[in-house]
Amino acid sequence: MKRTDVPTTMRASVLMRAGELTTQTRPVPVPLADEVIVRVTAVGVCGSDVHYFREGRIGDFVVTAPLVLGHEAAGVVVATGADVDASRVGERVSIEPQRPCRVCEFCRSGRYNLCPRIEFYATPPIDGAFAEYVAIPHDFAYTVPDGVSDEAAALIEPLSVAVAAVEKAGIRPGSRVLVTGAGPIGIVTLQVARAFGATDVTVSDPMAERREVALRFGAAGVVDPAAGPLGSGYDAFVDASGSPVAVRQGISALKAGGVAVLVGMGADEIAMPVSTIQNRELHVTGVFRYANTWPTAIALAASGAVDLDALVTGDFGLHEVAEALESASTPTTLKSIVRPDREYARQP
């Protein structure tokens, strides 16, 4: 193992139970043979972090023991495992926050996001990145160019969700696209759809503030779903809201042969317009995280085709994770960033 001057202990923000966070001193991880240790410089706040913080669970995933949240992370490699090239120390990286088994049928076919034994940051019982240091398989720590900021490197993770959704939707030059929900995922999906060649992207959101944001990021039009229909004849529909009403409206707005991709977290079960799906031969699918998206996402951010820095609306220290999570309820918030490295120099 090669390492720079890394302390033996670190600070981590730990969810003890729903609504209760505390800052703890924990051992710095020791890398497995195939891992690197990353000093975390930026972590984005995700809706799943907020769900765990407020409710202590998401579906079948329940917080039953102290858990470190946070999975949208970037940082600097400070140590390498025995099987990793030591020259990686010092690299700035974006973290794909998961460890698949690599041997099951899904991993071997390239769909490792569906691995039944996958370990994912901040999904019980796997700790996440609201900490000063994390361990990750070396090939899931992607080098980022100097022109990509620490914040943007962390937000490659939600950008990857959008890349996965746009690829599944089959969006291509000339596509007409509907996106429901103008939160962070909706806004990056809007940008990725445009980068993939969509010429008309309409965004629906009930909040006027978020519709204005969508227009700033290049939406061809915006719709208040409470005011009337969302339009019709779309080639693709991506739901980034999780709203049952939005899902039904969006599916009904597709033209024959269209594709609906469900991304937003919402109700476990909703009523679907089955006759519409059958009669128009619509394809309805979901997105579960991502696989093989990081190179594309980094290229989109580095080229300027997607603006991740403009998503950042709040900056917090590790001792302010609760405030960062609560900020998600503010309509003008897109992405709050936690910076564990702010107080790094004060560590013994």
Descriptors for this entry?
348 residues; alpha/beta; eight-stranded mixed β-sheet; six-stranded parallel β-sheet; 30% strand; disordered C terminus
Number of strands: 21
Largest sheet: 8 strands, mixed
What is the overall shape? globular
Poorly predicted runs are 344-348
- Average of the residue pLDDT scores: 95
Helical segment tally? 10
In angstroms, what is the radius of gyration?
Answer: 20 Å
- Roughly how much helix do the residues carry, as a percent range? 10-25%
Outline:
The protein is of the alpha/beta class and 348 residues long. It has helices at residues 47-55, 105-108, 150-154, 156-169, 184-195, 208-216, 244-252, 274-279, 294-303, 321-326; strands at residues 2-3, 9-17, 20-27, 35-44, 57-58, 61-62, 67-68, 72-80, 92-95, 98-99, 119-120, 133-137, 141-143, 176-180, 200-204, 221-223, 234-239, 254-262, 283-286, 312-317, 335-339.
